[in-house]
Amino acid sequence: CVLRCLMMLHNFWCEMWSMLRRLKHSINIISKNEVLESIGAFAVAGLPQITNIFISENAELASIGAFAFSDLPELTEMTITKSKHLRHIHPDAFRNIVKLRVLIISNTGLRMFPDFTKIHSTAPDFLFGLQENSHIERVPVNAFRGLCTQTISEIRLTRNGIKEVASDAFNGTKMRLSGNQQLTHINPNAFVGSSELVVLDISHTALSSLPENILGGLQKLMAESVFRLKELPPLQLFNKLQEVHLTYPSHCCAFHNVHRNRSSWNALLCSHPDAPGMPNFYKDHCSNSTAIICTPTQDEFNPCEDIMSAVPLRILIWIISILALLGNAAVLLVLLGSRCKLTVPRFLMCHLAFSDLCMGIYLVVIATVDIVTRGRYYNHAIDWQTGPGCSAAGFFTVFASELSVFTLTAITLERWYTIKHALRLDRKLRLRHACIVMTAGWIFSSLAALLPTVGVSSYGKVSICLPMDVESLVSQVFVVSLLLLNILAFFCVCGCYLSIYLTVRNPSSAPAHADTSVAQRMAVLIFTDFVCMAPISFFAVSAALKLPLITVSEAKILLVFFYPINSCSNPFLYAFSNRTFRRDFFLLSARFGLFKTRAQIYRAESSTCQQPTWISPKSSHVMLYSLANALSPDGKHEG
């Protein structure tokens, strides 16, 4: 007996059923923990006064047949839940339930979206819920047409297995699709019938875009943990938005700017609501002047600004990056293309030029991304900071910085060693020694640059792709250790140059004027290379110890003004200011048909490369004069 299957009144089911049919007032049916296998046709046809049906925890319920719930004029609420084996609901199961205002079907085994088009409810505030049905993968066309003659107040399709929503699927003012973790696509026309949609919840889905045709009337948008939604639609589409909950803090910057722009309009054009000739302007553009509530708000690492937050920074980074690229590329070409013997200093200078060239590449990448995303960085922040581009840029800058510091230290130690043992030819540094040293430098620099890509700190913490993530202890130790090593290298270089100065100023070694020249040139080289790192190291160490003294916006000033100065100045201090380098440059250019006259002059002056004085001092008293000659601007003896 079908009626027996519906009523859960223990052993008195049939007797109670007969009594219920005779009742004239409201009736509630609760079917719980019953052994129901199916609900057949006209199961409750004899209960026209029934108002509520609640079917729950029926482990054996597998199907609901045609006309099972048909012509129930007083039924207002119906719930079918916790019936895991319910896999089929006949298209004619629900018919002519005109007062129905709540329909909930949850936690079932349904494979297909049921047909609700014959209910024809006239209730003004209709709540529909199809929730936690993990096997339902698609919302079909016109899924809710005929369900309600009015606009559906709220549709809850949460925590299903929905992957796709077809066109003309929805007709409601509040749409909740949260928890459908496989939902990747909503047809652009899915909300054609939802002209009054004011609330949309797509949290915890896999959507990558929003349907633009419903954004104009939207007042509340919830898109939390939608990690694939990295780009927002044009902001001018959000005409009535008041509250939005998103996944990424950078997106809230967009709505912050929208409010700021609205405020400007209000101040300029909205001060006269009764202005003649503009009867609708105030209503359309000035009535909504409150700030948009948006979460999550931006943090201290990602302020609401472009990568280069000011025009002077944007101009300067291009100037410095181009100088670094051209200067270091020229040095590499001259050193590698010269027919002179590759000495230890030349070998080290090649590595220094290469590291500084990598820094130039990093600056060009940052400057280019800044230009491309200018004014709309909030829409590109996630793709940039979590993508391979930022990781590559971060690798280049850390590798370049560490290799440059390592090579500068090696150059200084080589000069110190050569001068201290100037008269000991048997203790002269060989090229094989330099190769071993620089191999160690490359390994160290590569490891330091790779660690943030495997979870030790992170390049994606800030828009300029520096390893500023010190949340974990391992990351903090890594960043602090790297900074302390750079500081230690600075003091090592200072100590070496002090020792060199004390050696060359000895009257028994060289003329006093040459000693002074050597000391001055050494001071210019070392302090130009390292003084610019002092503010970087100071503020970076304080930030790594979680005691930041400046903001990320202020750190960008250090990035442009101080961080790349070494890479920009090294080619000019170590190469272009030197006469021997200029000779090599013109001789190399002449091989390609350039500067032939200047090259001929240099050939006449010196036809060999026996005295590469611009880099390496010789192991005799002449060494000191050579070093003075190498470090003087014109390459000639002074005095």
Estimate nothing, just give the exact number of structural domains. 3
- Briefly note the structural class of the backbone: alpha/beta
Using only C-alpha atoms, the radius of gyration works out to: 38 Å
What's the pLDDT, averaged over the residues?
A: 80
**Secondary-structure arrangement, i.e. CATH architecture of the largest domain:** Up-down Bundle
Q: So how many helices?
A: 17
Cα shape? elongated
CATH topology of the largest domain: Rhopdopsin 7-helix transmembrane proteins
Strand % is 5-15%
Largest β-sheet summary: 11 strands, parallel
CATH class of the largest domain: Mainly Alpha
* Lateral arrangement of strands in the main beta sheet: 1-3-6-9-10-12-14-16-17-18-19
